UniProtKB/TrEMBL annotation:
Pfam families in UniProt: V-set (PF07686)
Gene3D superfamilies: Immunoglobulins
Spans traversing the lipid bilayer: none
GO CC, alphabetical: plasma membrane
Keyword Cytoplasm: no
Immunoglobulin domain location: 21-125
This protein's name: Immunoglobulin domain-containing protein
Signal peptide: 1-17
PANTHER family in UniProt: CMRF35-LIKE MOLECULE 8, POLYMERIC-IMMUNOGLOBULIN RECEPTOR
Family annotation (SMART domains): IG
Keywords of this entry: Membrane, Signal, Transmembrane
Domain of life of the native organism: Eukaryota
Gene Ontology MF annotations: transmembrane signaling receptor activity
Length: 136
């Protein structure tokens, strides 16, 4: 019985290992950052941020970055990731946003034998709305 419960618990990736926002928004040309919190027992594991494919748990090579436990920061193209091991969170950032960057993403942990993740919906709007006041 306990084995069945343990296996069921392990099949719910990310629901207990990571927390973060459900949704984040940005504008074309701008940037955004996502904070993903993790438990103390995951300090020394690889963290990742990626645009999700339409299959559960699979990432696209497009906008994929991971940081091994031996590093605190990494940048790859327009994407960066930084791990704050003292405060138990990592931050993933994307700069020079495009509309194609919209979609589901995963912040995750890669642990031997499985990956845990938290899904974040990213929405990129065409342009920032500005209100201009013209003097007569």
């Amino acid at each position: 019985m306990w084995t069945l419960l343990l296996v069921g618990w392990m099949l719910l990736p990310g629901c207990w290992a990571l927390t973060g926002p459900e949704e984040i928004r940005g504008y074309v040309g701008g940037s955004l950052s996502v904070r993903c919190d993790y438990g103390k027992s995951y300090t020394d594991y690889t963290k990742f941020w990626c645009k999700k494919r339409y299959f559960v748990g699979l990432c696209s090579d497009y906008l994929y970055i991971e940081i091994p436990s031996s590093r605190l920061m990494k940048t790859k193209g327009r994407v960066s990731i930084a791990d704050d091991r003292r405060q138990l969170f990592f931050t993933a950032s994307i700069v020079n946003l495009t509309e194609e960057d919209s979609g589901p993403y995963q912040c995750g942990l890669r642990v031997t034998g499985w990956s845990g993740w938290h899904e974040v919906k990213v929405t990129v709007f065409p342009g920032e709305f500005l209100i201009c006041f013209l003097a007569p």
